[in-house]
Amino acid sequence: MKVSVIGASGRIGSAVSFLLAKEPYIKHINLISREKSLSKLTGIKMDIYDALAAEGRDAEIEVHSEKDLSVVDGSEITIIPAGVPRNDKMSRLDLAKENAKIVKKYVRGISKTCDTKLFIVTNPVDVMTQKALVESGYEKNQVFGLGTHLDSMRFKVAIAKYFGVHIDDVRTRIIGEHGDTMVPLLSATAIGGIPITRLPGFENFPYQKTVDFVKNGGKRIIELKGGSEYGPASAIVNVVKCITNNDKRLLTLSAYLDGEIDGIKDVCIGVPVKVGKNGIDEVVPIKISDDEFNAFKRSVEVVKNCWNEVKDI
Asked: What is the pTM of this model?
């Protein structure tokens, strides 16, 4: 399987390139960046080869400039974490206008010569996913974003820690914007198949504190170490595995809605989707509580408003 990573010299791009190279099903990786970062990419390539040698593995890793995106051709998936990073004073939505230009440039260049799946990581990821979908002209199943997949995992960790259970026993998800209006679904949260609301100790569960922790997790990591990389990179590889293995797993990714959830249309946002070899096999129209649905609609409006600001850029 061949994968391309655009923005491979950045924190997330380099981390995900390393993790992908360790996967036995990945045989060929294109590391793509701006001209001024090519020497850094060469160093990343050398470092990855050293790590693979220590494990008795090999892969074909190539370094390319963004000036020739035809090298993407043949890639099953093209991962795009490229963009202006945010600092700890910025929201993800603050990045929208600059990153819309970057995403537009890349996906237009790719779609001229290539047929691939576009996996968007650039923030604000919901808006950038829609930008990629519109500018590429690809089918909606081919274009998706990391969405609230990482947020859902952060929420899962917090629940497991509070209840003192194995993380694999926790089932939960967050939908909506990957940002301040994300919507945790307590109605869809269970531990070992038991709804969380029926478990001893739930009455003291610090729900709002936990939600705030999840919402501000990325910002706090920026404050402490300059930016996140291991979490997003691992979440990305998780999705790539689902596609490669045709797992049909339900993940919460940023996907285009066309009325599947209560008639909501023309927005890319974090929703439960079935992930398989075609990318997004389907949006899953789950039933949630009235309060959760109202919060989701507010989240949709925030993303739509941001989209209206960048759609013509």
From this structure: 0.95
